[in-house]
Amino acid sequence: MKYWSQTFIPTLKESPADAEIASHKLLLRAGLVRKLGGGLYTFMPSGLRVLQKISQLCRDEIDREGGIELAMPFIHPVDNWVDGPRWSAAREIMYRVDHAGAGKGRSKEPEFVLGPTHEEVITPLVKSEITSYRDLPKNFYQIGTKFRNEIRPRYGLMRAREFVMKDAYSFDATDEGATESYHKMKRAYSAFFTRCGLKTIAVEADTGVMGGSFSHEFMVPAPVGDDDVVYSDAGYSANREKATSGLVPLGFQEAAPSGAVEEFATPGCVTIAALEAAPYSVPANQQFKTLVFMGDGKPFLVILRGCDEVEEAKLGSLGFQLWRQATPEEIEPVLGAKPGSLGAVKGTIKNPDALAGVFADHAIRLIGNGTTGANKDGFHLRHVNVDRDLAITKFSDFRRVREGEPCPKSGEPLKIARAIEVGHIFKLGTKYSEKFGAMYTDDKKQSHLMVMGCYGIGISRTLQAVIEQSNDADGIIWPWNVAPWQVLIVNMDPQDAAASDVAKKLALAAESAGADVLIDDRNERPGVKFKDADLIGLPLRLTVGGRGLKEGIIEMKWRTEKEVRKVPLAEAETIIADAVRSAAAKA
RNA sequence: CGGGCUGUAGCGUAGUCUGGUAGCGCGCUUGCAUGGGGUGCAAGAGGUCGUGAGUUCGAAUCUCACCAGCCCGACCA
User: What is the ipTM of this complex?
Assistant: First the structure.
């Protein structure tokens, strides 16, 4: 048991002005964290307890599925990253660590970086330690601090520069084995989030810089989330970056050409909207939108309907390491016109050989015959037929889905909701094992690449997500398993030996039933103590004081309920122990 | 990186337009009273007004630069 006066729980009446959302305010007001700088937080004693409890639940569930815990360094030699498959993409988010101390020649590149994740460390380790199929599969994990130079840290622990993460890495001999490892982790994740009292949904996700063949994100639905989840009642769910819709029906037949391509003058008309307006009156869904990107230094085109937006994450499927929108200066020499008059009609592109490809979204097939830029400033082309006139390297899905579009599984309207990403699992395949040469020998003396998966849980973000999902106007409502303490004993008369004795006796009873107990022995007014009790949100509150003791009772109240139950002193220990046991069993 | 807003005591803020003694609430300290939902009264302590330069007899206030934070966007494993 812990006495309030002997730990440190600095509660606040008011929230600091920079806290915007409920969970961030409550983290500060309940004394769980204090801010050092943007995205940098000190875990105060009670916050640390929650963090440790969540970590332990996570450890339990990963262990149950065969995870093996280890601890890798926070500081990585930069060579591990330079040698890996994503140095150019990842270097931007990594903190560099210069030499400590003076002297010694300094190289232009940093010698060390702070680890944002550990594929580049674990893969070489496994490469040198495991060479036989007999030692596979293995799934190594750790729980520790990660460092990422977030462009815009915000919402407290939600997006921080330094945060606590559980990261696991599986190594399998076969692809099927890797899929099985993936599903074990998926199971562990569901179990873990449930035990944290969190409602999560697993959605299909983009693999992004991580690479790999497929992935799921674990999302906590919340209006303050950073991600959009697209879902339908038929059970489809995906991150918006990844989500598709059944816009183009199966077996759709493109329209035949409606006439010869015809150039027409559109002076000063450089937007989709301008072309929609009179005198041109071309609906946006009949226009081809031509976007130019630079992929690893080479320009490429993306063609969409005028009414659609590009989902840049989907360009990841094209295989470029880095891509960005091209500048007007880069566009003109290649296409022959400035943005606003661009198109991809055969023969109009000034320097087609410079292009790394012309990639079209499936939905342009719905246009059939449409209007697009002529690659000549001030001119557009009409009667442009997808089949006849465009030289498409590859059709794929590049557009951002919209609410209400048909679900790709069922055709029902898709819905979109905000969510917080608390976990992400990837089936990586051989991207890293290939780059680092992580091979094993099978029973026929043949060498093969190991098949990998990687799995992350934002432990500190999970902590805040729990608060975001579970609070009311008075404060936090901790789920049983992650509460810093499960039982709060409010001693109304800490100066009174009898009351203090009873408080201690009740604490021992609750403890022996398996609860962590905090005793509020502060010499504060009752109102202060009750307000703080609600604010810090421990699940079960017991009130001991002179008034009740004269009656021969103590009071028992759940944080989730309004009702206060009077418990006769004689039965109190038994009733409390039962309450603790049944709460623990339900959690 | 672009747009907007804000920096005044540990926290929340007024004062800035119109330059002239830096104010209030919470918290903190001390005392008395009170004692079941942030109690009352009284007495205190606590400030480089984000930083630097400039204008001025005089700058929290006006000007410029910089820094930091927040929001929106971009970006984001």
Answer: 0.92
